[in-house]
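> forwarded from #structure-qc
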């Protein structure tokens, strides 16, 4: 681990509430770029910055530099920041989640153990509900207890690779680095109805076909996405109107089932009921290489089986065409 808390994780929130729009987000990345070239976009509302060089250049510590960035973000973009500062990206992200808007939470060098100890197992990057439940069944219900457990014990419970990752993360070890990138790319697709469609089941089928399409495209390109945006185009008295809502995935993924689950939740939030819908669009945002993604630690055999089936289906589509394999709900 580095000796200084030189990584910042910034979570952006507009003063009036909500996340910045695309233009505002790009402006915030440019603002960070004035302090350091090592900025990693984490759309739609966060970013990582390695400010090791900037601390020396500006003669500031992490908290001081974070304050300067916050003042400029507020003055220039009307955006407040909750900032976490630590020696690696994982700790910085966890610190940012603990920071209140308008504040910086710093994990000082050598004090990561105290910061992590009392947090629940699920607070660790990549530990989902199922993994946390299993760990709790063995009395490993806090990060401190996981950190104190013998590595061999964790590996017996969760498997060799997952056990190693758990032990390292619980001990504040993160081997990833801040990777400079531009505002992350997105891909999108849309389904239009030949007439005003009132049937919620048809809306659901259209959205399912979109998540399947984007999932296949993401996996084929070796990409994962961080968030989804659903757009609903519907008829009103003046012609057509479009509503768009987005949410962040629990972890970056290209897994069709995870995309579908979140897309359905977003769609439900519109509460359209009998709305006259003319089209539905889906956009996968925050794309980056799957090899760089921090995957959720899991040993769920059902999930692993689903992913293996998905990989086989992708091979069949590549060989026989995109319509060779489709969910039963779309085949009917």
């Amino acid at each position: 681990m580095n000796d200084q808390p030189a990584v910042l994780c910034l979570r952006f929130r507009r003063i009036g509430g909500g996340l910045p729009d695309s233009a505002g987000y790009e402006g915030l990345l440019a603002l960070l770029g004035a302090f350091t070239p090592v900025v990693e976009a984490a759309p739609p509302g966060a970013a990582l910055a390695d400010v090791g060089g900037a601390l020396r250049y500006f003669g500031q510590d992490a908290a001081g530099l974070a304050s300067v960035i916050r003042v400029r973000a507020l003055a220039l973009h009307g955006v407040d920041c909750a900032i976490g500062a630590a020696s690696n990206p994982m700790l910085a992200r966890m610190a940012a989640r603990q920071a209140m808007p308008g504040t910086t939470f710093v994990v000082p060098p050598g004090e990561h153990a105290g910061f992590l100890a009392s947090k629940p197992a699920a607070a660790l990057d990549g530990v989902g509900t199922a993994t946390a439940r299993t760990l709790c069944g063995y009395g490993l219900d806090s990060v401190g207890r996981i950190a104190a457990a013998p590595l061999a014990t964790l590996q017996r419970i969760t498997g060799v690779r997952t056990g190693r990752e758990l032990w390292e993360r619980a001990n504040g070890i993160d081997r990833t680095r801040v990777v400079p990138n531009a505002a992350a790319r997105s891909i999108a697709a849309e389904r239009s109805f030949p007439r005003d469609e009132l049937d919620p089941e048809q809306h659901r089928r259209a959205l399912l076909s979109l998540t399947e399409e984007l999932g296949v495209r993401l996996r084929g390109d070796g990409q994962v996405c961080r968030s989804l945006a659903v757009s609903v185009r519907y008829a009103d008295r003046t012609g057509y109107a479009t509503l768009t809502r987005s949410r962040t995935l629990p972890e970056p993924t290209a897994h069709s089932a995870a995309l579908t689950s979140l897309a359905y939740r977003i769609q439900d939030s519109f509460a359209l009921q009998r709305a006259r819908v003319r089209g539905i669009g889906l956009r996968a945002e925050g794309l980056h290489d799957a090899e760089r993604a921090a995957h959720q630690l899991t040993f769920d055999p059902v999930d692993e089986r689903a992913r293996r089936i998905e990989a086989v289906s992708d091979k069949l589509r590549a060989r026989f065409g995109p319509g060779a394999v489709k969910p039963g709900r779309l085949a009917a």
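QC bot note: The chain has three domains: 7-110, 114-170, 185-331. The first strand starts at residue 7 and ends at 14.
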